Amino acid sequence: ISFNAIDAALSSLKNCQSYINSGMDVATQVALDLVESFNDEEDVNNMEKVMLEYATMDRELNHYIKAYAEIINQVKREKPENLPDLENLAQEKFLEMESKNSDSDLQGNEKYMYFKDQLKEMRKQYHGNDTIEEIDEDIAVTRSQMNFICPITQMTMKRPVRNKVCGHSYEEDAILEMIQTQKQKKKSVRCPKMGCSHVDVKGSDLVPDEALKRVIDSQNKQ
Q1: Residue 152 to residues 75, 103, 176, Cα–Cα distance (Å)
Q2: Using one digit for the tens of pLDDT, what is the confidence trace for 78-116?
Q3: Where is the SP-RING-type domain (predicted)?
Q4: pLDDT one-digit tens code per residue, 126-167
Q5: Helix ranges restricted to H, the chain
Q6: 208 has which bridge partners?
Q7: For 159, which DSSP code?
Q8: What is the C-alpha to C-alpha distance for residues 204 and 201, in angstroms, rounded to an integer?
């Protein structure tokens, strides 16, 4: 039995996932633009709906790919004399997976989680200092600028990344170099932010802190 055509089709479907990922990246950037320009909250909520639609498509595509892969592997293992109807078998498997769908699947989508995280940070940066500014504008500016400093280089960050575990941000090159150096010594990396108790910083836990980068860039322009 030749599965080349099916393998090629599955490969094409996987390429579709990259388009979904790109769409989610664009939607995230647009939402951050809206918060930065103090647009109506309804517009931001609409972008969140777009993200959930993308997450739904991503889940459906994953199930479809997984269903076909499982059926093909099963046929390859069993090597039946007569080739079964792969399309029907895969469709049954796909529907079985889809029947177990829940909202938590979408909430757990990595791109959607990043969207929510960055949106929260963006709102905090742009709307979170209102009370402080009423008390003392200088204190507010000083506190904000302190968040711009990398705890490793002690310089203003240019490409900040945020640790998903403890929430602290660092200059990308500096934290990756620290992780690499400690890895060679077979040691884990403690979060360099003073007072943080997180003792195992991993490269896989770091995500670009787009919200913080925008605020730093805006401050630098001023």
Answers
A1: 54, 39, 11
A2: 887 787 888 888 899 999 999 999 999 999 999 999 999
A3: 135-221
A4: 766 544 444 344 434 444 556 799 999 999 999 999 999 999
A5: 4-36, 41-78, 86-98, 103-107, 110-127, 130-135, 137-146, 172-184, 210-221
A6: 161
A7: S
A8: 9
